Amino acid sequence: KMMAEYRFPNEWMKGDMVLEPGVTPETLKKIESFELKEGDILIATYPKTGTTWMQELVWLICNNGDIKQARSMPIFERVPFFEYKLDGVKSGLDVLQERPRPYMIKTHFRSEIYQSQIEAGKVKIIVGIRNPKDTLVSLYHFYRMNNNLGNFKGTWDDFFELYKTKHIVFGDYFKWYSYWLQYKDKPNVKLIKYEDMHHRMSDVIDDVCQFLGKTLSRDAIPDIIQHLTFNDMSKNPMVNFNALDLLDKDISPFMRKGKIGDWKNYFSEEQSSVVDKHYREVIEPLGVKLEFE
Ligand code: A3P
């Protein structure tokens, strides 16, 4: 069976978590010992939960809503992907060294890597979450188009079987959130939902501004909201990773659909009940409610 063979090599593993290729044990050590300081911001998300959207939002909030400057520099240089390192491309750590503090950083690691930093309470952390069904569909398409993830050529059903084995890049969704959500009520941690960014972007902007201790001029907000729409972002090369050859845009664009409820076009009833069960067991008891449509 194809899926039985779809195992990532051992050097991509950190315990039960599959790292992205390029995340070496050395990088991991460097990140674990990297001191995050007062004013630094960490955006911690499970892959495909709207990370890029959140990065763009946070960058704008920290830069007086300067859309012009946002359009002049790729997002991975403004808000580097901490643990990422590909051949021929600067690592997230390298990009950071060239940036002035305070740092804005993206990470897909589980919270255990940052435990001491979370306890120290200096860095502010935004944890992004999206309902698991849409996240999995988005991740399925990402597996298909990302040549770095073992050339996955399977169907949705194949991907779902893979999900059930929990052998997924950056680890199982539910385990990932069971780690991060234990910190959600700490004063230096803020949980933001993808679905709220859809329905209530202006509230989310207020919320994030308040959390980060920043203000935006009222007049700037309509343009920011427009800049952050799926329509505008899908046409914006600075947030689309166009320069990265490893993403095959003919298979699926990076900004694919940006919808809530697309999972209904993929999930069978049985698959849906598998995820519902995990949701009820892991997410609901933590007092988090997510929108699925
Ligand atoms: P879909 O594949 O469902 O379209 P990440 O940045 O964590 O990789 O997440 C990517 C997902 O966020 C994709 O989901 C992408 O379309 C969606 N996304 C990115 N920008 C968005 C926006 N401005 N509005 C809505 N969804 C957005």
From TrEMBL:
The keyword Transferase applies. One of its GO terms (molecular function) is sulfotransferase activity. The keyword Transferase applies. Belongs to the sulfotransferase 1 family. It comes from Paralvinella palmiformis. This is Sulfotransferase domain-containing protein. Keywords: Transferase. Residues 39-283 form the Sulfotransferase domain. The chain holds residues 89 to 381 of 381 of the full protein.
